[in-house]
Amino acid sequence: MEDTAVLNTNIIVDSPNVVYTDSEIISSYDYSDARVHGNILTPTTERLVFKTERHVPRVGALLVGWGGNNGTTLTAGILANKLGLSWETKEGTKTSNYFGSICKSITVRVGIDDNQKPVYVPLNNVIPLLDPNDLEIWGWDISGVNMGDAMRRAKVLDWNLQQQIYPMLKEMVPMPSIYLPEWIAANQEDRADNLIHGTKFEMMNKIRHDIRDFKNSKGLDKVIVVWTANTEKYCVVRHGLNDTAEHLLNSIREDSDEVSVSTLFAVASILEECTYINGSPQNTFVPGCIELAERFNVLIAGDDFKSGQTKLKSVLSDFIINSGLKLQSVVSYNHLGNNDGKNLSTPETFRSKELSKSGVIEDVVRANRLMYKYDESPDHCVVIKYVPFVGDSKRAMDEYVNEIFMGGKNTIALHNTCEDSMLAAPLILDLIMLAELCTRIQVKRDKDEKFTKMHPVMSILSFLLKSPLVPSGSPIIHCLFPQRYAIINFLKALIGLPPESFLMLEHRLECLRNSDRE
User: Fold this and answer.
1) Annotated active-site residue in 141, 210, 304, 420
2) % of the chain at pLDDT higher than 90
3) Per annotation, catalytic residue among 206, 233, 313, 466
4) What count of Cα atoms within 13 Å lies in the side-chain half-sphere of residue 248?
5) Catalytic annotation present for 353
6) Rounded CA Rg of the chain
7) Per its record, what are the GO molecular function terms (predicted)?
8) Catalytic residue check, 326
9) Is pLDDT at 462 greater than 50 in this prediction?
10) Residue 367: is its pLDDT beyond 80?
11) Residue 349 pLDDT more than 90?
12) How far apart are CA 493 and CA 506, in angstroms?
């Protein structure tokens, strides 16, 4: 096979480091870093070989909390795109799209042309990715309302679009789910009419049965489970309860009150060898759950969808501190009126959200010890209030106060209106598409004989999550641009291309400019 990689047959990239076969892409990548020992900096290079299956299988997604705003918006959006629908609004005709999805809406620079101009291709042309229109979607919900009426209850999409989608959605009824009122706000009780009963072990086995039944009835190769239900309170991590896989499984068998609903879904998914993504801020992935994923080599990712205010905060804190300004205070205020806001109106569930939002500036502060001492960090306050009238249109207000030259102060105040579920829905799609890709990738060091799967904890998806879960001992990166380029450079490595670089030496060094003219 010649060393030529074809991107969706319309762009050709020649590389000595990649081989395409009918079934696989095999690429090599030189991973370079520098290790510091005392005052000695030592460059290191490790050659990695990636093997990526080209065939995209039949994939299904099961959403926990399917009947909520995110689930109904995502399902309706996929149907609208699949059918190519358009609808009328007071601003004119709108057409279906996947704006907000990096997999469907952004481009990647793959090189330069003969005139030294950059060449860009759609990100989903770099490597074979799942087409959202081919995704089978179903799920569980504690409310038995059909998806058409649930969409109307959410009040997210334009009414003319809802009218077109409603006949199809009303035929979709969520499977019964698990409701344990001690884990979420008491105000959710009025929705809880579609429930699984029994011990926690019995409920977990019912979830496992539902996964198998969905997979077999739809003829699927893979199932990915996504938690998009209510935020739970934090659970206790304790020796003998959930600190190891065996302790966690025993706690489920013994019907322990201290095993959360989201952890039950995660364990059920792992035992069925299905990728599990946690889209809420609670600590679903207790140590025993992570150990179980590692034992079964099942991919997991979390925590909490990063769709609005936190994404902006990860950009601004990076910009401020890396511009040499000392960020001293960050105050974030939110009010929203959807069911997520209603659930977060209690202190226990709000605490989970507060923790996921508060860690976003830590790594950029930690990286700068010129301005910050080792025990110093900016004041950081997060407030969330429930205001029913604003519905899904969340208001986010931020104030950043920076210390500048010679004792001066600089204040940045922002107001951000987030259409919460319309930002989250394409983000969920990205998580599903990239997680599915990760299941098709194997890697080895050049000197090793066998390929292995990726680490079960998919930290590569940190760009899409507020409080990214990482393998034990790994640094947590919150800054948005490093997270974004981690995904882009990873995809480029899979087809033998070098990582993204902004050196542009061909334009900045006279010797290279002269050689181009010659």
Assistant:
1) 304
2) 63
3) 466
4) 29
5) yes
6) 24
7) inositol-3-phosphate synthase activity
8) no
9) yes
10) yes
11) no
12) 22
The CA distance from 201 to 207, in Å, is 10
Listed range (41-45, 55-59, 156-160, 276-280) with the worst mean pLDDT: 41-45
- Active-site residue, 394 included: yes
What does pTM read for this prediction? 0.90
Average pLDDT, the chain: 89
What average pLDDT does this structure show over 333-350?
70
Instruction: Delineate the domains of the chain, giving CATH numbers in brackets.
Output: 310-419 (3.30.360.10)
| Torsion angle of C-alpha atoms 106, 110, 111, 117, degrees rounded to 10 | -20
Going by C-alpha positions, the residue among 85, 162, 437, 480 that lies closest to residue 312 is 480
Residue with tokens 């902004």: 502
Query: Is residue 215 among the annotated active site residues?
Result: no
> 500: which residues sit within 8 A by CB, 6+ positions away?
109, 485, 488, 489, 492
Largest separation between any pair of C-alpha atoms in the chain: 78
Catalytic residue (one of 311, 394, 398, 492): 394
pLDDT single digits (tens) 290-333: 999 999 999 999 888 988 788 888 889 999 999 999 999 999 89
All residues at 6 or more sequence positions from 450 whose CB lies less than 8 Å from its CB, including other chains: 444
Which is catalytic among the residues 206, 342, 353, 357? 353
Residue 339 makes CB contacts below 8 A (sequence gap 6+) with 68, 69, 188, 191, 230
Query: Is the pLDDT at 267 greater than 70, yes or no?
Result: yes
Reading the block at residue 261, the tokens are 């609903």
Least confident of 89-103, 296-310, 353-367: 353-367
Structure tokens at 497: 């291309």
Report the C-alpha gap between 63 and 76 in whole angstroms.
14
Confidence of residue 478 (pLDDT cuts 50, 70, 90): confident
Q: How far apart are CA 259 and CA 257, in angstroms?
A: 6
Exposure on the CB side of residue 430, measured as CA atoms within 13 A = 28
